[in-house]
Every structure is written in structure tokens, then in C-alpha cells.
Write a sequence for this structure.
């Protein structure tokens, strides 16, 4: 007996939202610092200091960051396969670039934690560059997918309504973290953690939109085994069926 084939669109409708929703949680791994003796003050330290090369939990937080990047890349690639279109395609590829840049961010970590080590430099050229690429790809994905939702994705009202607010607020919180880069450290950790929460909100919005697209629209359901009616010039044509002539009594 032949094995039933699985519709790839169904798999994408299930797995892409699940991967992105999971990434929203994993990407905010910084909450573990409230449970672990990291020695860093969340108000005045960068999250990337958690996986700085000389830190105690470098391997743990670096590994979680890599897992989050893999979830985002896999979810974006699956979502891209089911949602063609110029703006749409560019938005998902930007999210893939975000994941790749996040991997590079872990591969070239900060050498030390400047918030607790005074000789440590806050500007690490390689790590600062990869972090800038992470933000560039993230904001590009937000702008492109919000534009796509506004132009032609009626099943994405949440992205269309809340996406611009998430984009604007995420950019504001990201800019509020650059103080140490200009010699003004302090209180940059709080806005950065707020920024990461907003990134998680963005992933959840995308996951919810993909799930909404997978639901059947009203009026499209049909009985099992009955073929869908063909449409010609906007009018449905019923399948031809043979039936016995009615008895008119003659």
C-alpha cells in the first residue's frame, strides 16, 4: 500500500511558525542571568558580554545564541517557500541574513566584559561590525515584511498594524545602547534588553501571521472527496453529472 504523501505547504504552515515562535523565546536567553551568577549588572552591561571570551558562561550563552540563529534561519527559509513576492522574498532573505550575522557575532565575541573590567575596550572592531550587520538585517526584514503586509497580504493584519510600531521602537531602543561606543557607558543594558524583547515580539507577529494564512478562509471548505468547482471568467462551473430523466407521467 503506497505511503500517503505530505503536502509541503502544510509542513511549512506548521513548522515555520513554530520555529519562529521558539526563536522568540530562545533569543531572549539573557533572562537566565537572573538565575546564574554572571557577575554582570543587567542595567549597565551589554548582553553580548554574557558570551565574551573570558566570561564564565561563555559556552552556554554562545551556544544558545547559535541555536536561536538556526531557528530563525530555518523558519525564514520555510516561510519564504510558501510566500512568493518581491517584498516578501526580500524580507525573508533579510531574516536569513540576520541569522547568519548572529552566528558571526558569536564567532567573534567580545574579548572581555567592559562593564566590569576597566581595561577592557567597549569597541571591538570585529564584534561591533557583526553586531551592526545583525541590526541592519533585522530592520531590513521588518521594513520589507511590513511593506509586504501593507501592499498585499490581507491575512496579516497584525503585522500591518503593529509592525511599524515594533520597527520604530526597536530602532529607538537600539540607538539608546550606543553610549559606550562614544565613551558614555551606563544604563545601556536596560534599553538593549528591551530591544531584544521587541525582536521576540517581531518573531511572534510573523509566526501568528503565518498561522493565520494557513487557516481556511470562510466559504472555501468543501466535502471530502468532492472536487473543487472550476472557475471560468469568475463564475464557478459545476462538474457534469449524468442522471436519469425525470418521469413526466407520459
Amino acid at each position: 500500500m503506497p505511503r500517503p504523501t505530505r503536502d509541503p505547504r502544510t509542513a511549512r504552515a506548521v513548522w515555520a511558525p513554530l520555529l519562529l515562535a521558539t526563536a522568540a523565546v530562545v533569543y531572549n536567553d539573557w533572562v537566565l542571568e537572573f538565575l546564574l551568577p554572571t557577575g554582570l549588572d543587567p542595567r549597565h552591561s551589554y548582553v553580548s558580554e554574557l558570551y565574551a571570551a573570558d566570561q564564565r558562561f561563555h559556552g552556554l550563552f554562545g551556544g544558545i545564541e547559535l541555536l536561536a540563529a538556526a531557528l530563525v534561519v530555518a523558519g525564514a527559509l520555510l516561510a519564504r517557500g510558501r510566500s512568493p513576492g518581491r517584498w516578501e522574498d526580500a524580507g525573508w532573505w533579510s531574516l536569513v541574513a540576520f541569522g547568519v550575522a548572529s552566528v558571526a557575532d558569536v564567532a567573534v565575541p567580545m574579548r572581555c566584559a567592559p562593564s566590569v573590567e576597566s581595561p577592557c575596550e567597549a569597541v571591538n572592531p570585529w564584534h561591533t561590525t557583526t553586531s551592526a550587520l545583525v541590526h541592519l538585517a533585522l530592520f531590513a526584514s521588518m521594513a520589507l515584511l511590513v511593506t509586504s503586509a501593507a501592499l498585499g497580504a490581507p491575512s496579516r493584519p497584525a503585522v500591518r498594524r503593529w509592525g511599524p510600531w515594533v520597527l520604530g521602537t526597536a530602532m529607538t531602543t537600539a540607538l539608546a545602547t550606543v553610549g559606550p561606543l562614544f565613551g558614555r557607558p551606563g544604563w545601556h543594558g536596560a534599553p538593549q534588553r528591551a530591544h531584544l524583547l521587541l525582536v521576540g515580539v517581531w518573531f511572534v507577529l510573523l509566526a501568528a501571521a503565518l498561522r493565520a494564512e494557513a487557516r481556511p478562509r470562510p466559504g472555501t471548505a468543501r466535502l471530502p472527496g468532492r472536487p473543487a468547482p472550476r472557475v471560468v471568467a469568475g463564475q464557478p462551473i459545476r462538474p457534469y453529472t449524468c442522471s436519469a430523466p425525470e418521469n413526466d407521467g407520459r
Remarks:
- Residues 220-229, 239-250 have pLDDT under 50 and may be disordered.
- The helical segments are 8-26, 58-82, 86-107, 125-152, 157-175, 189-214.
